[in-house]
Amino acid sequence: MPLLDITRPEIILVLNEAYDKEKRLRSYWVSKNSEKIQEAATLTREPTNYYEQDVMKHAMIAGMATITRDHKIYTCNKRKVPLRDAKSIPGIETLRHEHSIINLGVGTAKEDPRLARPDTDSSPDPVMRPVDAKTKKIFFKPKPHFGREKYLHKRAKILPENKYYLPECTSWEYGWRLKDSKMLGKPLHGRNCILQKTLEGRVGPTRNPDHYRTPMVVDQTVRLVMI
Q1: Could you tell me where the Basic and acidic residues compositional bias lies (predicted)?
Q2: pTM, whole model, 2 decimals?
Q3: Is 147 left (phi over 0), alpha (psi -120 to 50) or beta?
Q4: Per DSSP, what are the bridge partners of residue 6?
Q5: pLDDT tens, 8-38?
Q6: What are the domain boundaries of the chain?
Q7: Phi and psi angles of residue 59, each rounded to the nearest 5 degrees, phi first
């Protein structure tokens, strides 16, 4: 079928009539069904914000029980008594046994009275060490020489291991309680094993650089003749 020539006046007239008719029918349908459209466009329930993966996950979890229930091995094992690896299961009264700050050796009850608690006490251990009384007074004195800013500035100069019992972030793990390590640095005035390091090094002994050579002595008589 050949395409219509939309430049012809009679074709333009027919198209305009068709467009006007469709416009009237659309307007009539929208005005007639406006209440239904408003009801369909309005959310009458609480939004769940579910994704397609959430729906699939829920269906998979619901079907996992049937996998073990309908398996042939389940019919043999469902009547057996479950085995216990231990005679008793630890409870709340044994949670802090050998795991308190005092048992770990990072604090004592003399330094912090909050640590003097029975093993049956399941409350969490304190995170921060007690603040020095002299430093704490800075917080309550008036500005500008004292106050919260001066208190935080003074506390920032203290090592984290002297303020907290255990590392509270991963950046503290590097260098935490470094003074407790046996691998101390070399002495300031000690001798260095140059020969041992040279022979046992990765590349072995190497030649001396050029600036280590003996300087060349020029005979003064020869120098005068050349001048």
Answers
A1: 109-120
A2: 0.41
A3: left
A4: none
A5: 888 888 889 999 999 999 999 999 999 888 8
A6: 9-40, 119-172
A7: -70, -35
Average pLDDT rounded to a whole number, residues 36-46: 80
What is the model's pLDDT at position 28?
Answer: 92
**What distance separates the 2 farthest-apart alpha carbons in the chain?**
125
Tokens of 123: 């409350």
Distance CA 194, CA 172 (A): 35
Digit-coded pLDDT (tens) for 63-112: 787 776 666 666 666 666 666 665 666 665 566 666 788 888 888 889 89
Neighbours of 161 (CB within 10 A): 18
**DSSP letters spanning 57-113:** HHHHHHHHHHHHHSSTTHHHHTTSPPP-SSSS---GGGTTTTTSHHHHTS--TTT-G
Task: Return the ∠ at Cα 180 (arms to 179 and 186), rounded to 5°.
Answer: 55
Nearest to 129 by CA among 146, 116, 115, 112: 112
Please report how the helices 34-41 and 9-32 are oriented relative to each other, as an axis angle in degrees rounded to 10: 70
- Estimate to the nearest angstrom the gap between the alpha carbon of 101 and the chain centroid: 25
Q: In whole angstroms, give the CA distance from residue 10 to residue 16.
A: 10
Residue the block writes with tokens 């308190």: 100
Dist CA 62 CA 53 (whole Å): 14
**Exposed, middle or buried, 176 (CB in 10 Å: 0-12/13-18/19+)?**
middle
- Name 209's Cβ contacts closer than 8 Å, sequence gap at least 6: none
